[in-house]
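Appendix B, Record 12. Input sequence as logged:
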Amino acid sequence: MVMIKVDTVTLVMIAGGVLLAALAIYYLFWKPDQKSDFQNMPQPSPPQHQTKPQPRPPPQSGPVLVLFYGNNCPHCHTLMPAWNEMKQSLAGKMNIKEIEGQNPEMSNYAQIKGVPTVRLYPKGVEEHDQFVEYSGDRSSQSLIKFATTGSS
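Logged structural output:
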């Protein structure tokens, strides 16, 4: 039988290492009340294998102003205060929609090239190939002018 002598300092260092490892495992894997940043991220939905046609927006009567935006787009976040002010100003006077433009079903349907994209569909979204795309500045007054006249 082989006897190994361990001095007190080595024993304390080993115990401390085991304690640190146990704490790391506890905080990373076994603490149910808190999730890591990775676990808080929105998870993509599994692909749906459907034979149905692509979903289309509901029919609208009259002109429709649509904002295609991206949740993680800094340009979209910059536009939102002016967009919300414009929405309040035109509430009840015109159909205004916001569509998450990174949704592949909608972006394929509308064939947008980037976000944010603002489009006016004069005959409604059912006539998705007839639209005027906004190219003005990002102020509420310019957006209101575009929505009411159809020109930037």
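The longest strand covers residues 64-69.
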